[in-house]
Amino acid sequence: MKALVYTHYGSPDVLQLKEIEKPIPGDSEVLVKVHAATVNRTDCATIRAIPFFVRVVTGLFRPKKQIPGTEFAGEIEAIGKRVSSVKTGDRVFGFYDQGAESHAQYLTIKEGNVTTIPGSLSYEQAAASSEGAHYAYNFINKVNLQSGQDILVNGATGAIGSAAVQLLNYFGANVTAVCGTKHIELVKSLGANKVVDYTKDDFTKQRHKFDFVFDTVGKSSFFKCYHLLKPGGIYISSDLGYLSQNIYLPLITPVIKPILGNKKTIFPTPKDIKGSLKLVKTLIEHDKFRAVLDKEFTLEQIIEAFKYVEQGQKTGNVVITVGHDRKT
Question: 204 and 107 share a domain?
Fold first, then answer.
């Protein structure tokens, strides 16, 4: 089978498309014939091993998993003897934040990391429906969200941001979304109540106060957004921030809450992929969620896709279409 392989960390230039052996599923795994995948910020950071300490998980000197990719959609070709939730022939989509090795024609993965594709949803749409929604849902799970609360979403057109706007709208929040001029109508269609055009206005200088500020692109900071929060408000970022401040500030701000007006920051450590997949599947079935797609590349063009994502200007998700020939 064809697969994207890297044997050492670096820029997208370390990636190579190679022919390798098709994997065999374990007792609790499924073998998926991949039809679509995505390239996202996580993938780009993984091949570069950024930040450095992630090597504790990914491999200190070279990658433990040599095929990148976290989310996918495809067809189950085989199942392990302990698998019961899905069957051979099912159309499925799934996600694994520690590496699904989805930039390949086939992959094996635990059954809990896949779910069936709703209705006639395309593989491309399905593949882009899990990673952003998973991280967005973990933002929401970190706070005691109540219907009618005011939330600001910075980076509302990214994979996480576009998912966050839709999920927050579903849960009844009042969403103020930050995006560029050309995406205002898109963001409104996702459920934003108000839009701030960052090309014209600095969102951090608003007078309006928010219960929560979600920075889904990591381009602000707790200190820049502190004054936007209501008393008891919470700031969350998808990025580690300058000098990895978003890791240690959550340990400090709860201690000095009285000084900060009871405001704090939380780091959204993601968990419960199965729960996220269940939620997004339900929302898709009820026409309450749609993945925003930017560009499509073929598996043969995937290195170009990595370089495009690293520019930091994508809208929603970059999709990889995976073809198959008789040899696979």
Answer: no
For residue 222, tell me if it sits in a domain.
yes
DSSP state of 258: T
Range of the domain at 147: 135-266
Query: 91-95 and 71-79 as β-strands: parallel, antiparallel, unpaired?
Result: antiparallel
Largest CA distance in the chain: 66
Residue with tokens 């499925």: 92
Classify strands 174-179 and 150-154 as parallel, antiparallel or unpaired: parallel
Q: What are the structure tokens assigned to 130, written together?
A: 């899990």
Same domain, 178 and 97: no
- 273 contacts 281 by C-beta, under 8 angstroms: no
Q: What is the pTM of this model?
A: 0.94
In angstroms, the CA 215 to CA 222 distance is 10
pLDDT tens for 36-83 read 999 999 999 999 998 888 898 899 999 999 999 999 999 999 999 999
**Is residue 127 classed as helix, strand or coil in its secondary structure?**
helix
The span from the CA of 81 to the CA of 78, in Å, is: 10
Domain of residue 55, CATH code? 3.90.180.10
Q: In one letter, which amino acid is 139?
A: F
Check if the beta carbon of residue 318 is closer than 8 Å to that of residue 38.
yes
- Number of alpha helices (DSSP H) and beta strands (DSSP E) in the chain: 10, 15
**pLDDT per residue over 223-281, tens digit each?**
999 999 999 999 999 988 776 788 888 888 888 877 888 899 998 888 899 999 999 99
